[in-house]
Design goal:
Number of strands: 0
Largest sheet: none
Order of helices and strands: HHHHHHHHHHHHHHHHHHHHHHHH
Strand content: under 5%
Distance between the termini: 46 Å
Shape: globular
Amino acid sequence: MSDTRHSLPAVPPQSPPPSPAGAKGGGRGRDGTGGKTRTGAEGRGSFTSGRFLARAAFLTALLTAAGALLGLVRDQTIAHLYGAGPDTDAFLVAWTVPEVAATLLIEDAMALILVPAFSLALARRATAPVLDPDPVRLLVRSTLPRLFLALGAGSALLVATAPWVVALLAPGLPEPGLAVDCTRLTATCAFTFGMAGYCSAALRAHGSFTAPAMIYVAYNAGIITTMLLVRDRWGVRAAAAGVAIGGALMVLVQAPLLWRRLRARRPVDVTTTGQGPKGAGGGPTVALALLAPVIVFALSRQSQVLIERFLAAPLPAGAISHLNYAQKVAQIPMTLSMMLCTVTFPVVARAMAAGDTERARLRVERDLALAGIIVLTGAATVVACAPQIIEVLFQRGAFDPADTAATADVMRVYALGLLGHTLVGALVRCYFSAARPLWFPAFAMLSGLALTTGAGALLVQVWGVLGIAAANALGITVTAALMLYRVGRHSVPVSLRFMTGGLVKLAAAAAAATGSGWLCGALVPSPVLGAMAACVVVGAVFLVIAHALRAPETDTILRFLTRLLTRKLAHVR
C-alpha cells in the first residue's frame, strides 16, 4: 500500500490565452486544454481551470507530504520498537489486508468506478439542473446502502477466517498465532477503507481535494498514537489496533464535508462542447457495469505484494520486513508523481462525459510527462543514495546496520520498476475515465502478474530477496508497456510516438543523474549530508540533460523554478 505519500505546486498549467478565432481544438498544444476558448466560469477559477488545478495540486502536495512524513514516522516507530524479526513479519502478514483494501477501496477500484459515475451525474445536473430526482442524490441512494452492507459482511468474514487467511498468505510463518490476532484487528479496514474511498471519490468529483488528501494524515496519526500508548501491553498487536483506529479516522475527516456537499444542490461547473454528456439519459447504475473489470485489475495489481510475501516466507527471518521497508521508501516518488493524476482524473472524466476527447488527450499526455519527470528523478535519487536514506530513516533501536544494508539493496532493485508503477496508475485512469467496462487493463495486469510470479519463483532461488524485487520491477514494466500501447485504441487517444519518445528521453536523463548522485553520495562521509548532496545533484543533472534532449514538459519545470528563484532573490534584495 502506498501510504507513505512535495510536489511542484505549479505543475498543472496556468490558463492559456484563447485560441484564434476559428481554430478547431487549438492544434496539438501541450497546455492540457486543447487550446479551446475558455468559458467565463473557467476564467473565474472553475473546477477545470489551470489556476484551480494548481491550487488543488498545491494543497494536495502539502497534505500528501504530511501524510508521507507521518508514514515514515510510523515505519520508523515499527522498526525501532519491533526491529525486523518474527514479530514484525507477523504484523506485515496482517498488514496485507489494509494494503489490499487500500488499493481496492481507496486508490484504484472505488475511485475508478465512482469518480466517472459522479462526474456523469454532475454533468447531467449541470445540463439539466431542474431534474427531479437529482442525479447525484439518486446515485448515492442507489449505491451507498448496498456498499455499506457488503463492506460490513466482508469485514466480518475476514475476522472469522483469519487463520486460513494467514495460512494462505504466509505458509511456514514462525508465529502464525500472532499473525492471526493482528489480521483480525486489521480486518476492520475492509469496512472503514471502503467508506473512506466512497467519500474520497465523491468529493473529488465535486472538486473537493483537501479532505481526501488528509486521510493518510489521520490514518498514520492513529497508528502511531496507538502504538505509543499500548505497546507495553499489546506488543506488535498495538500496530494492528492502530490500523483499525486509523481507518475510522479516515472516514471521520471526510464524512461531514460530503454530507454538506450532498445537501447543497447547486449546479457544478462542467466544460461542454455542445455534444452534451454521454449517456445523459442513463441512470446511476452506470457504475455497476465497471465493477468486474475494475475489481479484477485492482486485485491483480495488489496481488504482487501477496506473491512477494508468499515467496519470501520460507527465507530467513526478516526477509519480509526488508521487502516492506524497501518498498515503502522506494514508492514515495511514485506516490508524489501520482498526486497530479489524482487531481486531474475528475477533469479527464468530465471531459470524457462531455464528449471532449481532445481536451482529455492533451491533459493526459501532459500528466504522463510530468509524472514521469517526478518519478524518474525520485528513482534516480533512491538508487544513488539508498544506504544513506535507510540509515537516516531506520537505523536505530532494533534495526541494525545489517538490516540497513539488506534493505538498501532491495530498495535499489525496486526503484527499477517505479516508472512502470506510475504509468500503470496513471493510464488506468484513462481507461476508466469514460465509465465504460473495459477488460484490457485487467488483462495487462494479469499478464504482468503471471510474469512476476514466474520470474520471482526462478530468481528467488538465485538472488534471494533481490530476485523477488527484480521480478516485481519486470512484471509491472511489462504491464505499463501493454497499457501504453493500447490506450489510444481503447480510451483516450494518446499519441504513442510522442509519449514513448518523451519517456525514453526522461529515462536517459535519469540514468545519467543516477551516476552523478551515486558518486556525490560516496564522496560525502556523513549519511545526512551525503543524501542531501546527492538529491541536489540528481535533480540538477536530470533537468539539464532532459532539457538538452528536449524531453516533454521540462520547459514547464524550468520556468517554474526560474520564477520561484527570481521571486526569492527579489524578496532578499
